Amino acid sequence: MLLPGSVTDKFQGTFPQLLAAVSGTLSCISDGMQYGWTAPAIPKLLSKDSPVVVTEHQAEWLETILMLGACCGLPLTMFLVDKIGRKGSLIGSSSTTLVAWIIIALAPSVEYIYVARFFAGVAGDTAFVAAPMYIAEMADQKIRGFLSSIIYLMMLIGVLLVYCVTPFVPLWVPCVIGICFNAMTLASFPFMPDSPYYLLYKDKPEEAKRSLKRLRPGGNPDIEIKEIAAAIERQKSEKGRPQDLILVKSNRKALLIMVWLNGSQHMSSISVMLMNLHSILEEAGAVYIASSTAAIIFSAIMFCAAMSASLAIDNFGRRVLLVTSGIFAGLSLGVIALYFTLKNLEYDVMYISWVVPLSVMAYAAAFKFGIGLVPIVLTAELFPAKMKAIGMTISDACYVGFSVISLQIYHKLKNSLGLHVPFYIFACWCFCTVIFTLLFIPETKGKTLEEIQFILKGNETKGDDARPNIEVEAYKNEAFVS
User: Fold this and answer.
1) Distance CA 97, CA 182 (A)
2) How far apart are CA 344 and CA 417, in angstroms?
């Protein structure tokens, strides 16, 4: 058990890093609100007293257009995070989303909302690539996992907030709330230090040293700046072409891990659950809880589970959380699949219909405890500096792509074979993720970004044993930062 004193020790001297991480990800609450906005907003838009005339066909596009924006934003994201930096990309993303909310609040027709949602998708994609990069590059390794998970916590707050507020207020109110969160980011984040890794990568050693002094007020920036400089010099000597993601063994392994984990997030049914929770409960005949109430409870449980995981990830490691999450999420989905199998065989299952909402809530907790949280942490840890932008962008593309695939699998198999079949597939994917984790994913807890690269390259020197080698090479490169 983690004692309170050890928690205090872990966070001692890290307040500037925590402040920078929170300031840079506040706008992700707004992104979460955009992601969940259609579920409570579409019924209001289709009502007779809607401020904007919207047909059912147009309403379907309101959800899709956000994901299209995310897809189209991938090349731009890859360019921006290296051209203007992680910090600049986050500021640009927040500014874009703020404008999107203003357009939605004042939209005279649905076409305006389409445009706003499209650019909100572009901005959200940029934020979910730039924020993990920024945090991983500026955070101390002892709290890097916790800080990297903040982006998901912020997103879940946004989803929960929009579920709780939108059904009960005019449609312009959630827009104002989203504007406020973006405004808070724009008012605070420009004054935060930039990523030391990025500054050194751009040959700005003095700015990088000042950044480290602000982020680690009690540390020794001279030693750490030499470590980072040595790592970047080595990584700069490596090729940075797109094909090197496949040709270089360590990059290939990182890409394989991230494609699988990003696929697992959706192939374990999270998009299906979020977008079809009401119909799944109605199909089960669950009359114990209203669907709107179930959606709020579902998102609240996910937030609590994600918060617990974010506090545990730097103590128990990434692999433990992934394995635990995969097992319990798979079991929860298996129970749902079994229930619908029995119902499809015309057994009388109404007296046990309560197992479906119970399993759905158990799934929410299990999913966000690992599969729904760890990938965002690992994404920013596994790719080297020269391949980070393209690697994380491709990972994000897989995240969006598997979302579409999982929804297509669900709808097509549900209509042709029955609701139980897609849930069996989703449950099996969770258990496959457990096996994949045990066989292929290295533990990155407590490792520097450079040590992680050595592990991916197959170097058996890990942990503290690797650090002296890094420091020796750092001193050899002292001229780089002089």
Assistant:
1) 7
2) 10
Residues 6+ apart with CB under 8 A from 145: 310, 313, 314, 318, 377, 445
- Sign (positive/negative) of CA torsion 400, 379, 259, 157? negative
Rounded distance, CA 440 to CA 255, Å?
Answer: 12
In whole angstroms, what is the distance from residue 106 CA to residue 467 CA? 56
User: Which residues fall within 8 angstroms of residue 439, CB to CB, at 6 or more apart?
Assistant: none
pLDDT at 447: 82
The rounded distance, in Å, linking the Cα atoms of 278 and 67 is: 21
User: What is the rounded distance in angstroms from the CA atom of residue 191 to the CA atom of residue 169?
Assistant: 35
377 touches 392 (CB < 8 A): no
**3-class SS at 395?**
helix
Other CB atoms within 10 Å distance of the CB of residue 468: 10
**C-alpha torsion angle, residues 296, 272, 136, 14 (rounded to 10):** 20
CA–CA gap between residue 227 and residue 349 (Å, rounded): 62
Alpha-carbon distance of 301 to 70, in angstroms, equals: 26
Cα angle 412-414-419, degrees, rounded to a multiple of 5? 160
Token pair of 394, please?
A: 């491709």
| Predicted local confidence at residue 376, as pLDDT | 77
Q: How far apart are CA 55 and CA 63, in angstroms?
A: 13
pLDDT at 471 (0 to 100)? 38
What was the pLDDT predicted at 239? 55
pLDDT < 70 positions in the chain: 1-11, 13, 235-241, 286-288, 291, 385, 459-482
- CA dist list (Å): 58 to 33, 110, 114, 148, 163: 20, 8, 9, 36, 21
Cα–Cα dist 123/99, whole Å: 11
Residues in the chain: 482
* pLDDT for residue 166: 87
How much is the pLDDT for 469?
Answer: 43
Tell me which residue of 217, 248, 481, 262 sits closest to 383, measured CA to CA.
248
Phi-psi region of 52 (alpha: psi -120 to 50; beta: other; left: phi over 0): beta
CA distance 183 to 177: 10
Structure tokens given for 331: 């079991």
- Cβ(403)–Cβ(266) below 8 Å: yes
Which residue in this structure is represented by tokens 């480290």?
A: 212
- pTM for the full model? 0.75
pLDDT of the residue at 422: 94
Query: How many Å apart are CA 166 and CA 33, to the nearest integer?
Result: 10
Tell the burial category of 449 from Cβ atoms under 10 Å away from its Cβ (0-12, 13-18, 19+): buried
Residue 238 pLDDT:
59
* pLDDT score for 11: 67
